[in-house]
Specification:
Layout lengths: L11 E3 L1 H17 L6 E5 L10 H8 L2 E3 L4 E5 L3 H12 L3 E6 L2 H12 L4 E4 H6 L3 E4 L3 H10 L1 H4 L3 E4 L14 H9 L4 E5 L20 E6 L2 H13 L3 E4 L6 H18 L9 E5 L2
Parallel strand pairs: 4-5, 4-7, 5-6, 7-8, 8-9, 10-11
Antiparallel strand pairs: 1-3, 2-12, 9-10
Helix pairs in contact: 6-8
Length: about 280
């Protein structure tokens, strides 16, 4: 059996005891409530963590546990940006927002996120960050990434933006455009693209199902950092493979929005989520 070695990341460490406890709990639940369906579905009801394959067991063996706070720079101040910031601040990470107008946005962000958040210029926020979260409107992402490429190279860049109709032909994806704009040394990981902002504080739905966050990228250590940040918010991180998979994730978003609008029901919109299941 081929096993992927644990990436050597300074701020994370292997914890076999925690991994084994997590694996046993997941395996027990799956045996008790096994489903026969396979694939990815939009879920607003009960769904289950699948029985782990040998490959998945290897992933659990490499479970990442944070040793110290990650320095995060969030570019953008919308609902996704503030929702993620609240969760990571609660998890004791260092969260700094980058803004064109830090003085003008500071009071708003402290009110929305909490007194522990910092607000700096774009350059200052990027310069101190280990992981950058791009949460701008999609139309601004490529230009921002090209302008600040020197500061983004070598850093983990989590792209949570969605292009919708801006990239209609499926020949590329938003995160791939971001990576090309940064150039050599880009470490872009797509994540949280298929999640509504309203569920960021509710990683477990009303039926007790842990929601999935799909992520993908070409840089294995960068993906490990992103996975750790996803799991610390209480979600199940689902590795979708290389950055090329973001082309599919981009297309899932407008479909999710449309299905949620039509099938969510009164008072239940923006709560649906995609769930990957195996038998």
């Amino acid at each position: 059996m081929l096993r992927t070695p644990l990436p050597q990341i300074p701020r994370y460490a292997r914890d076999d005891g925690l991994a084994e406890r997590g694996f046993q709990q997941s395996l027990t639940i799956s045996k008790r409530k096994r489903r026969s369906s396979r694939g990815c579905r939009l879920s607003s009801g009960f769904s289950l963590t699948p029985t782990l394959s040998r490959w998945e067991r290897g992933v659990w063996d490499s479970h990442l546990v944070r040793r110290s706070a990650v320095r995060l720079a969030i570019i953008g101040t919308g609902k996704m940006a503030t929702g993620l910031a609240r969760g990571w601040l609660k998890a004791s990470h260092d969260v700094t927002f980058g803004s064109r107008d830090p003085a003008g946005r500071r009071d708003f962000l402290i009110k929305e996120v909490g007194p522990g958040v910092s607000v700096e210029t774009h350059a200052a926020a990027l310069d101190s960050a280990e992981c950058v979260v791009l949460a701008l409107p999609y139309a601004e992402v490529e230009q921002f990434s090209a302008r600040h490429a020197a500061l983004l190279r070598g850093r983990v860049v989590m792209d949570i933006t969605n292009p919708f109709d801006a990239l209609p032909d499926n020949r590329t994806s938003g995160p791939e455009v971001t990576a090309r704009a940064i150039g050599d040394g880009a470490r872009v990981v797509a994540a949280f693209k298929t999640n509504f902002s309203g569920i960021l504080a509710r990683p477990v739905d009303a039926a007790g199902t842990v929601r999935d966050v799909f992520y993908c990228g070409d840089d294995v250590p960068a993906k490990a950092v992103v996975r750790g940040l996803i799991e610390e918010l209480g979600f199940r991180a689902v590795d979708c493979g290389p950055l090329l998979a973001a082309r599919v994730l981009d297309g899932m978003v407008p479909l999710m929005v449309e299905m949620d609008r039509r099938l969510g029901g009164p008072g239940r919109t923006r709560r649906a989520h995609w769930k990957f299941e195996t038998p």
